[in-house]
Write a structure and sequence with these properties.
Blueprint lengths: L2 H7 L9 E2 L7 E4 L3 H18 L14 E6 L11 H5 L4 H7 L4 E7 L5 E9 L9 H11 L12 H10 L7 E2 L4 H15 L1
Parallel strand pairs: 2-3, 3-5
Antiparallel strand pairs: 1-6, 4-5
Length: 195
């Protein structure tokens, strides 16, 4: 991946740049799935986190769970989530998502150092995601939660290498300057050379 390609992954529509990684172990919880499917998603989260070099724990000391994933058939089901407005800081989120005909929505919370503190993902399984293969969807969601990607990404070996590069302890936990993409590209090149 070129530095420009990397930078584009973290550049928002308004031109802002943010590449942040988790600064604490991930404590995932998943709502709205059958037990047999839960195991697929838990395994995917653990595999992606371990590949990145970060940990998965049962409980986050501050939040209990810090990676929350909600599966619904209709956005109005989110109205049953206690304190949803406070959790997301997005008033009327179910109506907003319905009005936008969205299939998914993701938001991050951050620690004082800029590292990811929490990731909340909401998915509507009655739309385009209805026929998604559970294992592929699980890996995709885990990958998208590892860094503050500004757009949807699909798991590839290159993307896995990018995530590993971003978790290199030598690099800052969060960066707002697009030149950070140069450092990530250099880490990926160095890793390829060693491999």
């Amino acid at each position: 991946m070129t530095p420009d390609e990397i930078a584009a992954l973290f550049t928002t529509e308004d031109g802002g740049f943010l590449c942040a990684r988790w600064g604490r172990p991930i404590a995932p919880v998943i709502f709205g799935l059958a037990d047999e499917t839960l195991d697929i998603f838990r395994a995917a989260i653990r595999a992606v986190a371990e590949d990145a070099g970060t940990g998965v724990v049962e409980i986050d000391p501050d939040m209990g769970s810090n990676m929350m994933t909600f599966f619904v058939r209709d956005w109005q089901e989110l109205r049953g989530v206690p304190d949803l407005d406070r959790l997301t800081d997005r008033p009327d989120l179910p109506d907003r998502l319905a009005d936008a005909s969205a299939d998914q929505y993701r938001l991050f919370r951050f620690d004082a150092d800029g590292g990811i503190r929490a990731c909340l993902t909401f998915l509507r399984l009655s739309g385009a995601l209805a026929d998604a293969h559970p294992a592929q969807l699980a890996e995709t969601l885990a990958v998208r939660a590892m860094l503050t990607f500004a757009r949807d990404v699909t798991p590839t070996p290159q993307l896995a290498a990018l995530i590993r590069a971003a978790y290199d302890p030598v690099l800052p936990i969060a960066a707002t300057d697009p030149s950070h993409a140069l450092r990530l590209a250099a880490r990926m090149t160095a890793s390829d050379a060693q491999g």
